[in-house]
Structures
1.
Amino acid sequence: MKLVIATVLFFLGFAQICRGQTNGTTNPVNSQESAAAFSTNSYAVLGATPQQEALGRSQIQAMQPDALPLRIVFLPHWKYVDTARIFRLHVPAGFTSALFTHLPSRTVFIDADRYVSDESLGYWLAHELGHLATNSVKEDDAERAARKYRKRLEDASKRAALKQLQSAR
């Protein structure tokens, strides 16, 4: 017991002497250091091709959601099914899902093999962002929030088509 007490006191005393490389102040940050600027695209896109990532980011930017996810994960179908099972995703009988959101981790999972087109990705991504905005698992709440996101996405695609038409003249 005496050996243990002596060892603890030795290391506590040694820690006071060895303060590491410090500048003598107790402030952890000096006046020249600052935190990195907050980015509006502060979410990670994992497992996507460059085209899928660019499309997803542009659609989310056009939708201007109230809450951003922390991660968007594109998964092959077998991995998506396994992930849905692990998170105990409840899908009504006769239905399937190509995307789902895990609210506690603010992660959107996308079945990369099953979303049909670029437009369908935006449509269903708006629904998942609706879950995040309302912080609710209820489908009706997510759909209510998704309506305004889909409208913003539609308006942005109309503006892009008009701009492309004008540049072709």
2.
Amino acid sequence: MRQESRSGLTTSLVYLLDEDLASRSIVGALRDAGLEVTTVPDEFGRGCLDVDWLPEAGQRGWVVLTKDKAMRRSPLELAVLQASRVLAAVPQIEGIVRSRRGRRAILARITAAGEVRVHRTQS
């Protein structure tokens, strides 16, 4: 079910912020914009390893936001990964997720300009 947020963005996705992005200011800004946001520390505890929480995030269909560049190089993390200017990228994120339904993982990068660049998808 899609709903319109206060910012005019439409979303039915849950955004999970990795520990490196889980500051009050970022979480607050996303929530103020009407997005459904949770964090790795809130859901899985501080210091939880990526390989422990990523499978659960993928099963739940959450969009994972992180600054962890190492995820792009870790085959184990890439195998379970479900996927600055996040709000500008939300419509693109939603379009990418919808167009690639059924994929186990979508690895993308949000540029400083708010553009989303897909690096890899796995079916």
3.
Amino acid sequence: MDISAAVTRGADQGDARSGKDLPGACAAATADCRQLRVRTVPARHAGGLLARLHGPGPLAWTRRGDGLIGWGEAAVISVSAGADRFRVAERALGGLFGAAETEDRVGIPGCGPVAFGSFTFDSARGGSVLVIPRVVLGRRDGVEWVTTIEAIARGAAAVGGLPPPPAPEPARGGNGLTAAGWERAVAAAVTRIRGGSLRKVVLARSLQVATEEPIHVIGALEVLAGRDPDCYVFACAGLIGATPELLIQRAGRQVRSRVIAGTAARGYRPAEDTAASASLLASAKETEEHLYAVESVRQALAPLCDHLIADARPSVTCLADTHHLATTISGTLAAPASALTLAGLLHPTAAVCGTPPGAAMDTIRELEHMDRGRYAGPVGWMDARGDGEWGLALHCGEVDGSLARLFAGCGVVAGSDPAAEAAEAEAKFQPMLRALGLRPGPVGAGPSATTVPSQHLSRPVS
């Protein structure tokens, strides 16, 4: 078997919160994987982390200079569709981490064996993936380190040169709706909300674009980090982006989530920008959308924590193209739970799905007319201690050579206006268009943002 673990869906198709044991198929999926030999030592990194990335398949999770980057593949876990996909993935990852020979001379979150991961938004879709790189560089609160990971045959010397495992399946089926059609979908959602079948739903669009030369992924990540330093810049198995939304951070027993929902475009002049920020904070529609997202996270974390504290009121966080309402929630775990377990319990939040979640998911599947793939799913990392950080894959795209598929979504509530939601989606495409070297402005305008048929977008690569 290759230095990968192809995790298959087992007989237990129950909800991830059910607490049932996983089927034996999960353990069998990792039984033939090679053992990992891991060494973490202190190091000094010249320059920024992203500047040190190289080679195909870069991996990244950074914010304001701290975080992790990686390259190479010591092991890959491909996760099939299923409501239990987070538990299946964690069981497979635990098998690799538990059997690893580890020397860790630093001993803080992100050291030792680490997996970068990206999960599909919809549990009915396959394509989730965990990647354990061969090299990891980390920086946290002034401490820097390097981790090297070898994949060795059990009881044998290190080996290599085998073919790579399959890449995660790309999100196929571009948005079949025209701009006018998408506005009609928003209007249909508003009608359902006013009729009482749900309170909020998040509808997304995708955009297929092509560049004249192959996309320079590392350069795109540096542009994203430079323009929006408060965002978490990520790269995993061809999915790249910069998200303001921290789904969950775990360090020991301490957990934290940063909820983002409610949007306004930035103003062109300082006075306009100040007015836009104030209007967002005062907007009943945007505040309603935001509070649904906050409450969904609070309800999921409250049973797990001894203490849980949320900001008394949302604040405005300013990105290069948009303002957003933000609320931080922090707590202390009452019992052990890994960062990946917590991400699985939280997803999907009302920030990317809606409320109630079942009705919202059904509406998304009916009205969007596309496969989101890993857009709006959890993306981030976890180490062998269970510490880690998982965000939501927003302001992102799947990259394949000179082609990319970009995504943008909007929260729809009873007070939503379809034309205003369409304008918001246009604004949310801009960070990725700019990072890919495409001309900012109306989405799809001009030859620099050429729409391409979805069948031309093959598996994502970096």
4.
Amino acid sequence: MSETPAQRETRRKDRVGEVVSNKMAKTIVVRVERRYPHPKFKKVVTAFKKLYAHDEKQEARVGDRVLITETRPLSKMKRWRLVEIVERGEAPAAEAVASATETA
């Protein structure tokens, strides 16, 4: 039995996370948070994972909350792609200082 393209698309995972690095060309590093109860102690544990995502237009900045989705392997570590920027983050202090000195 064959699948339609829409059914194939629904099997892909989506994650929302924060951009921690955008220094590579067309690649961003996204920190994704996962919360789950500890198997024995039942306390809620927060785990983080860094995922490498493809950012074709290089529009995501550090601190942004982004939506990424699974895709075919694009490189050794890159298995995700940027879908949209959910929320713009605050510019880090180094970028704010650099932009202020350029305008002065």
